[in-house]
Design a protein that fits this description.
Elements lengths: L3 E2 L3 H9 L3 E6 L51 H23 L3 E6 L9 H12 L4 E8 L6 H10 L4 E9 L3 H6 L6 H13 L3 E8 L6 H14 L3 E6 L2 E2 L3 H7 L8 H14 L5 E4 L9 E3 L6 H14 L2 E2 L1
Parallel strand pairs: 1-11, 2-3, 3-4, 4-5, 5-6, 6-7, 7-9
Antiparallel strand pairs: 8-10
């Protein structure tokens, strides 16, 4: 039986640039989140212990007590941030060249909220990243309550010469879920800024989490459908897993949260993939963490095994990843 290849982000980039493009994850000190600094909420999302979602690089030395936001009057540590950016890119790109023969790179501003700073700081960091050798563009992870029209217009200008992506955490379209996980913004806010980003001509990747508290399969699939309808160009699917030092870990310990099973996750994932528009590329099928910070579910510990099980199920549907 001939299997249909799911359209991946890697295929998209290779078709466009003629070679495999590698993402270089970056974490810059001084960036935070309006859901952590008290602007919209306190404590962050219930599942977030940010070190668990940071790049697998040597940890950058934090700038103690220094945090940016959209209204910061100055940035006395900009040069330090630019140095961090250079050191991380040089280290990771050298490793990718050595181990995989990488030739072209996309700088991925990953940790925390990477538009949550005044535009002059963003311009300095983004343009510095774009000057590195063989960098074809940027991917910028952020929240929908942390972007401005001014920033989107600037990114649209950059996109006339470079590959520019903006990544939004959608997670769910249900406000009761977003409130339960202490997200700090509404589903309407996400919809608004995704549609604005598309109106500016930007490439948008949406993140969806399956297995959020009290959500049914139908709710998860409705979130997928809405994200596709909003016009996202690429998607990342994640199961919700519990790590230490999070509010979700406390809920789990009290018996208030039951993680999604691997079977249920794959069921929802496959259904979501089958309703996905063909032109929407897939950047991630699943996620997990292999160190001792993972509490549950244990099937999220081995990503290779997850992908094996996903591919076995996809084969039954005539698909492959």
């Amino acid at each position: 039986m001939s299997l249909q290849q799911i359209y991946t982000y890697g295929h998209y980039l290779k078709d466009k640039f003629g070679t495999k493009v590698y993402k270089v994850p970056i974490s810059i000190s001084g960036f935070t989140c309006p859901n952590i600094d008290g602007s919209v909420a306190v404590g962050g999302c219930t599942f977030c212990e940010n070190d668990s979602f940071s790049p697998s690089l040597d940890k950058v030395k934090p700038l103690k007590g220094f945090h940016l936001n959209l209204t910061s009057a100055s940035n006395p540590f900009l040069q330090k941030q630019l140095q961090q950016l250079t050191l991380q890119f040089e280290s990771m790109s050298a490793r990718l060249r050595r181990d995989y023969g990488a030739q072209k790179f996309l700088v991925y501003f990953q940790s925390f909220t990477n538009t949550y700073a005044p535009l002059p700081t963003l311009k300095a960091l983004y343009e510095h990243a774009l000057r590195f050798d063989n960098v074809i563009g940027l991917s910028i992870g952020t929240r929908s309550d942390s972007v401005t029209d001014e920033t989107l217009a600037y990114l649209a200008e950059l996109s006339t010469k470079k590959e520019i992506w903006i990544e939004f955490g959608i997670q769910s379209i249900y406000d009761e879920t977003l409130e339960r996980i202490n997200r700090g913004h509404s589903a309407h806010n996400v919809e608004t800024w995704i549609k604005k980003s598309k109106a500016y001509g930007l490439n948008v990747c949406g993140h969806l989490i399956f297995g959020l508290p009290d959500e049914t399969h139908a709710m998860m699939l409705n979130s997928s459908k809405a994200a596709y309808d909003w016009g996202i160009d690429s998607v990342k699917y994640h199961p919700l897993y519990v790590v230490k030092r999070t509010a979700l870990a406390n809920e789990y310990a009290r018996g208030e949260f039951e993680p999604i099973s691997e079977t249920d996750y794959i069921d929802v994932l496959v259904a979501s993939l089958k309703m996905k528009p063909e032109a929407v590329s897939v950047q991630r099928m699943t996620a997990g963490i292999s160190d001792d910070s993972l509490i549950a579910p244990l099937w999220c510990r081995d990503k290779n095994m997850q992908l094996k099980h996903i591919n076995e199920r996809l084969k039954e549907e005539g698909l492959k990843y």
